[in-house]
Write a structure and sequence with these properties.
Length: 414
């Protein structure tokens, strides 16, 4: 697992500086609920997750929803103490880990606490990540009744040998069944895929894309595999047991995804995300509003062990292990262990880094002079869209999306 960032100690009462809520009325507020439990830890994963045998004594999945609900109430009390204006939640996202390892009634209880503490905006998006093996029709009955609007399914691949390398344990044939159950109850369905796994051929990737499209989802996320230090997969690659990830292979697979998804009516709205008109909703309505809140630098409160939060330039993060997290929440203290206040230069870097990834692009007027001077060269290289630049916006081309990090560096003059 990654180490937590360095920062200043976070106050035990969670108090926020006045500047972090001064513009709250102009900004949306989202809630992220981290469920840190998994049945099996996948070899590529470096998220803050735990199997039950890793947790030891004193931690029970049965009580987790109560602790998460307690932190939701604590969050509201901190914002009230800072005199932040009340804001109904723009979005709620249950991620992990595997949220659906918890009974759906417990996820619903946390959502009800969020509704009671903050309220939900009339068009609020509420998403639950789901493992296709850990759901039943009754799961979606409960979630839909509680106000969940979409489910994000961790499919990753439809090819058994690719799933084996990733150490994903779900059965591929369970995916269409689970997605069907969700759609029958009126829930939006997003499918998450990973490409570039060692040993995955282009034909394998095309098989996974075809299988995802057969599910008739309204949203697809496709992420290139990143091998993180400290994971089992990184160790296997280092020992030569598994081949290295090939960036050229990943680029070819990204472009294949773009072609097939576009042909199926999807449009990209962020480098790794596509949505389409489906099930009575437009492509814009089927985007992930929660993730867009991150890319647009809005405010969010992260609930749970290791969760990160942000309020207008102030960022903080919770203690990682569930046991001390539980102790702090039950004592009425903030579970945050570190905090940082972003300076103007850091906020500008993040503005460019995040904003260039989305379809709306970056307004050229928000770039510093060195960034504006770089635009002509990026257009000449085929990485930025020329007509969009003429209307005042830096938008990535298809080739530019493959080079988003390089585009960012040039806009920042690094």
């Amino acid at each position: 697992m990654p180490t937590q960032p360095e920062g200043d100690p976070a106050p035990r009462d969670g108090a926020l500086p006045a500047a972090s809520v001064a513009r709250a009325a102009e900004r949306t507020l989202s809630l992220y609920v981290h469920v840190p439990f998994c049945a099996v830890r996948c070899g590529y994963c470096d998220f803050n997750t735990y199997t039950m045998d890793q947790l030891g004594d004193g931690v029970s999945r049965d009580d987790y929803h109560r602790d998460a609900a307690a932190e939701v109430r604590f969050a509201r009390s901190v914002l009230d103490a800072a005199w932040a204006p009340p804001r109904a939640l723009h979005s709620v996202f249950f991620g992990g880990g595997t949220p659906t390892l918890l009974p759906a009634t417990e996820l619903a209880a946390v959502l009800e606490q969020a509704r009671e503490s903050f309220g939900l905006a009339p068009d609020a998006e509420v998403t639950v990540e789901a493992n296709p093996d850990s759901v039943t029709p009754e799961t979606f009955d409960v979630l839909a009744a509680a106000g969940v609007t979409r489910v994000s399914f961790g499919m990753q691949s439809a090819v058994p040998h690719v799933l084996a390398v990733l150490e994903r344990t779900h059965t591929p044939t369970n995916v269409p069944r689970a997605v069907g159950w969700a759609k029958e109850r009126g829930l939006g369905a997003s499918v998450d895929l990973i490409y570039g796994t060692p040993g995955e051929s282009v034909a394998d990737w095309e098989t996974s894309l075809d299988a995802a499209l057969e599910l008739d989802p309204d949203h697809v996320s496709a992420y290139s595999l990143i091998v993180e230090d400290g994971t089992k997969l990184a160790a296997q690659i280092r020992r030569g047991e598994v081949p290295q990830v090939d960036p050229d292979d990943q680029a070819e697979k990204y472009l294949l995804a773009e072609r097939l998804l576009t042909a199926a009516g999807f449009e990209w709205y962020e480098v790794s995300n596509w949505s389409r008109d489906a099930h009575g909703r437009t492509a814009r309505q089927n985007r992930s509003e929660h993730n867009l809140a991150y890319w647009r630098d809005q405010d969010w409160w992260g609930i749970g062990p290791g969760a990160h939060s942000h309020s207008d330039g102030v960022r903080w993060w919770n203690i990682k292990h569930p046991l001390p997290y539980t102790h702090r929440v039950r004592a009425g203290e903030s579970p945050a262990v570190g905090r940082e206040t972003l300076d103007a230069d850091t906020r500008y870097v993040e503005h460019v880094m995040l904003g260039i990834r989305i379809r709306e692009g970056l307004p050229l007027a928000t770039l510093r002079p060195e960034g504006r001077r770089a635009v002509a060269g990026l257009i000449a290289d085929g990485w930025l869209d020329g007509p969009a630049a003429l209307t005042g916006t830096a938008v990535l081309t298809d080739a530019g999306r493959l080079m988003a990090d390089a585009v960012t560096r040039r806009l920042l003059n690094w």
